[in-house]
Amino acid sequence: DADVTQTPRNRITKTGKRIMLECSQTKGHDRMYWYRQDPGLGLRLIYYSFDVKDINKGEISDGYSVSRQAQAKFSLSLESAIPNQTALYFCATSDSSLAGVSDTQYFGPGTRLTVL
Amino acid sequence: AQSVTQLGSHVSVSEGALVLLRCNYSSSVPPYLFWYVQYPNQGLQLLLKYTTGATLVKGINGFEAEFKKSETSFHLTKPSAHMSDAAEYFCAVSDSGAGSYQLTFGKGTKLSVIP
């Protein structure tokens, strides 16, 4: 079974709709991240969370919100989706006990979101 | 602030030929450096990483990379390309120490392998 799972894997929605993307992990990691990937732009950080009560904005947080429901679950919401939010979204996790030593992020399979 | 430059958004090599994917970074503190690979319709998988110690790092699937501080580079190589290496490759940098969670990615290099 995959350590980091994302649901749904694909989603098509319309402008103005509210969308939630979910991420779950079984790695026991405390840190979780949301990225978006656009062709030719690489990955950009949207939000990250160091634990359930610690949530931080990333490089491109406008138009997004997140919820850390438990250590293992981190959801990304688009309150009112717009076409330029069409992208591939990735969740990632890391272990803070390795921070400053070997901080590796492990990625989920991604959610392809299309906003019409 | 960190940045990563990957030279060439698309690289083509013949099967059996040398693979060389270039990555240059800028960082105000000693960096941690990563290469990730993304196969079609999949997430990112760690190929290798440099944190401290030996500057030549070996990863999975026969890939390796060398950290050259003087050139601020971390190029990825593989002596002999295989068809299964066709994928997109991302170089990433983070600060060592307390800022190590913050990865900055390059824009990616798509590798094609020609039979």
How would you explain this protein's 3D organization?
The complex is a heterodimer of chains A (116) and B (115). Chain A has 116 residues and is an all-beta fold. Chain A has no helices and 11 strands. In chain A, strands 2, 4, 5, 6, 9, 10 and 11 form a 7-stranded mixed sheet that branches. A 4-stranded antiparallel sheet of chain A has the order 1-3-8-7, with no helix packed on it. The relative contact order of chain A is 0.33. The mean pLDDT of chain A is 92. Chain B has 115 residues and is mostly beta strands. Chain B is 0% helix and 56% strand. Chain B has strands at 3-7, 10-14, 19-26, 31-38, 44-50, 56-58, 64-68, 73-78, 87-95, 104-105, 109-114. In chain B, a hairpin with a 5-residue loop joins β4 and β5. Chain B is globular. Classes of the chains: A mainly beta (116), B mainly beta (115). At the A-B interface, β5, β9 and β10 of A face β4 and β5 of B.
Order of helices and strands of chain A: EEEEEEEEEEE
Structural class of chain B, by secondary structure, is: mainly beta
By DSSP (H or I, 4+ residues per run), the number of helices of chain B equals 0
Question: What's the tally of helices of chain A?
Answer: 0
Task: Please state roughly what percent of the residues of chain B sit in beta strands, choosing from under 5%, 5-15%, 15-25%, 25-35%, 35-45% or over 45%.
Answer: over 45%
Helix and strand content put the structural class of chain A at: mainly beta
From the structure provided, what is the oligomeric state, counting identical versus distinct chains? Answer: heterodimer
Shape of chain A: globular
What is the element string of chain B, with H for helices and E for strands? Answer: EEEEEEEEEEE
Distance from first to last alpha carbon of chain A? 33 Å
Largest sheet of chain B: 6 strands, mixed
Instruction: Compute the average pLDDT of chain B.
Output: 92
Largest sheet geometry of chain A: 7 strands, mixed
